[in-house]
Design a protein that fits this description.
single chain; 135 residues; mainly alpha
């Protein structure tokens, strides 16, 4: 099963590349804005300014929320387009005898693998995004 998932990702790499790129950028921006928010809140607490703490939480929370919302929308659109493009190949799998629930499981496993790779790639980029956001 894992070999099928990995070979399907490898064979369709030209399509999955853009989805991986969108997921990586979205995760890096989301994590970077969260890091920047928590850094601002910590700095305000260290300064002892209660108004600045509440302002940092309110403003940072909104920024993080809308960044995550935008990232989820873009990644969902990219995944939807990629899966729509591959619909014919998946229909051929069903014709060849693979049950529909197995095809859905394979596709979900592909999403998990791509999400894990995107998260691993986004972790170091999040620090860069947080540095830019704090500057």
């Amino acid at each position: 099963m894992i070999r099928l998932v990995l070979s399907d990702i490898r064979l369709q790499a030209s399509m999955w590349w853009w989805t991986l790129l969108c997921a990586t950028v979205g995760a890096a921006c989301s994590a970077g804005s969260a890091i920047a928010m928590f850094t601002a809140v910590s700095a305000a607490r260290a300064a002892g300014d209660a108004r600045m703490v509440s302002a940092s939480i309110a403003l940072g929370g909104n920024i993080v929320f809308f960044t995550v919302l935008a990232a989820v929308g873009v990644v969902a659109s990219a995944v939807g387009l990629t899966l729509t493009t591959q619909r014919r190949e998946h229909a051929l799998w069903v014709i060849l005898g693979i049950p529909r629930h197995r095809v859905r499981f394979i596709l979900r496993t592909e999403m998990v693998v791509l999400g894990a790779v995107a998260g691993a790639l986004a972790a170091p980029l999040a620090l860069l995004v947080a540095g830019v956001a704090l500057a």
